Amino acid sequence: MIGTLINALTVLIGGSLGTVLGHRFPQRMQETIFASLGLFTLTIGFSSALATGNPVLVLASLLIGALIGESLQLEKRLNQLGAWIQEKLAGENGRAHTRFVEAFVTASIVFCVGPLTIQGAIEDGLLGDYTKLAIKAMLDGFAALAFAASLGPGVLASILVILGFQGGISLLASLGSHVFTEPMIAELTATGGVVLLSIGLRLLDLKQIRAANLLPAIFVAPVLVALLDVLGVAYYPIP
Q1: pLDDT digits (tens, 9 = 90+) for 81-116
Q2: CB of 152 within 8 A of CB of 90?
Q3: Fewer CB in a 10 Å sphere around the end CB: N or C, the chain?
Q4: DSSP-derived secondary structure for 95-117
Q5: Quick check: is 43 in a domain?
């Protein structure tokens, strides 16, 4: 959990600085920073998606995950959580309310779906090695500053999701050290990369995909790998 706590601290620092200094950045600068984050998110998403050993498995995970996410209305519930946090902190106030929720949802997904999140959290829980999470924490700190400068203090609320999601993975990893195999982690990372692509498209204002409704796919991927193993089906496609 040490890595997750470091991560939460850097987001707190970066988000706070961005909230305080954001109004000093010209609108054009905020737009360019926001576009840069979108492009970077797409780049990370693409590179992570290439980790797959079987693209069909990633597709199956996304389709099943989308069905689960839409059934549970995760995007709506995450929006409601952000709205509830904003209301408790500052009350409901029109456009500011909407921006707070957007900042919370966007930051939560970006910070918790990246390629370093799963691998880093697992290594932190299994081995006590939080090197990857320390690197992620530095990246997230700068991203939080940019997000907060463009979208406002809603970014800070994502710390709750980081602690719950990332910390939860570390805890589960510490309890089940033999559960996650390399193929499971690879497909989980690749599927998470595709989910990140949806966030990149949102940041660039190209397509408003309900990214939160795709999150179950991240958990479906390792389950499918385990199922293939039980059935004795070859994991890697025949060339």
Answers
A1: 766 766 666 555 555 556 777 788 778 877 876 556
A2: no
A3: C
A4: HHHHHHHHHHHHHHHHHHHSHHH
A5: yes
Residues 73-84: tens digit of each pLDDT: 887 887 777 667
CA distance 164 to 112: 10
> Quick check: is 239 in a domain?
no
For 73-179, where are the alpha helices, taking DSSP H only? 74-90, 94-113, 115-127, 131-151, 154-161, 167-175
Q: Please report, as a single letter, which amino acid is at residue 79.
A: N
- Yes or no: say if 211 and 75 are a contact pair by the CB < 8 Å rule: yes
What's the domain count of the chain? 1
**Residue 212 to residue 226: CA distance in whole angstroms:** 24
User: Is the pTM above the cut of 0.85?
Assistant: no
- DSSP letters along 63-76, please? HHHHHHHHHHTHHH
Could you give the CA distance from residue 50 to residue 67 in angstroms, rounded to a whole number? 23
Would 216 be classed as within a structural domain? yes
Q: Is 208 exposed, middle or buried (0-12, 13-18, 19+ CB in 10 A)?
A: exposed
What is the span of the domain harbouring residue 214? 2-231
Continuous segment of H or E residues that includes residue 58: helix 55-72
Distance CA 140, CA 112 (A): 10
